[in-house]
Amino acid sequence: MVLEADSGNELFHQLGQLIDKVGVAVTRIQASLPKPQDETSKCYMFIEMKNSKVSAKEIEEFLKQQGFVKSVKIIESSKHGIVGDIHYFLNIALNERAIISERNTYSATFKDVRKLFGTAAEAFLYYIGFEAGKRVYLSLIKLTNGPQLEALIEALKIVSITMGWGTIKKCM
């Protein structure tokens, strides 16, 4: 299910209460990180319908009646059981569109650049990495309202997980 709802601190609490009322289990909720001026959040919600006493259509109608929900769309699985948001939910991290790539694709790209361009590729890739790191650092400073080391490390831990880079368990 994909829905658009008023932003605010109570969004997940309100969704949780509503879903409890209809008796389905929420297995995952993913929401966009709205910009401060945005009035609505876009949410992607996976619900387990196996033991439900109501249909997905009834849940959709129930959610549409709630004042804070602006729109709802049921996402059916494909005939092969694949579920994905092909409608409008974009991955956003640090206020930029995040592009997710498989590790093999990412690795092969770097390997091919090195093979085609030799030692010049090393300098080029270093420059790209350095500039990308600088942009992340500046974004984290903006996110944490200043260059406080502990706040930057905490933000980096969260962004690393969100972006799929991995987890940072121990630092310093």
Which features does this protein show?
single chain, 172 residues, alpha+beta, Alpha-Beta Plaits, 2 domains, four-stranded antiparallel sheet, two-stranded antiparallel sheet, 5 helices, 6 strands, 44% helix, 17% strand
| SSE topology string | EHEEHEEEHHH
Terminus-to-terminus distance: 42 Å
- CATH third-level topology of the largest domain: Alpha-Beta Plaits
Approximately how much beta-strand content do the residues carry?
15-25%
Structure, explained:
This protein has helices at 11-22, 56-64, 103-117, 119-144, 149-162; strands at residues 2-6, 25-31, 40-48, 69-73, 92-93, 96-97. By secondary structure, it is of the alpha+beta class. The protein has two domains: 2-90, Alpha-Beta Plaits, CATH 3.30.70; 101-162, no CATH class. The strands form two sheets. It has a four-stranded antiparallel beta sheet with strand order 2-3-1-4. A two-stranded antiparallel ribbon has the order 5-6. The longest helix has 26 residues, at 119-144. The N and C termini lie far apart (42 Å). The mean pLDDT is 78.
Tell me briefly what this model is.
With 172 residues, the protein is α+β, with helices and mostly antiparallel strands. The protein has five helices and six strands; from the N terminus they run βαββαβββααα.
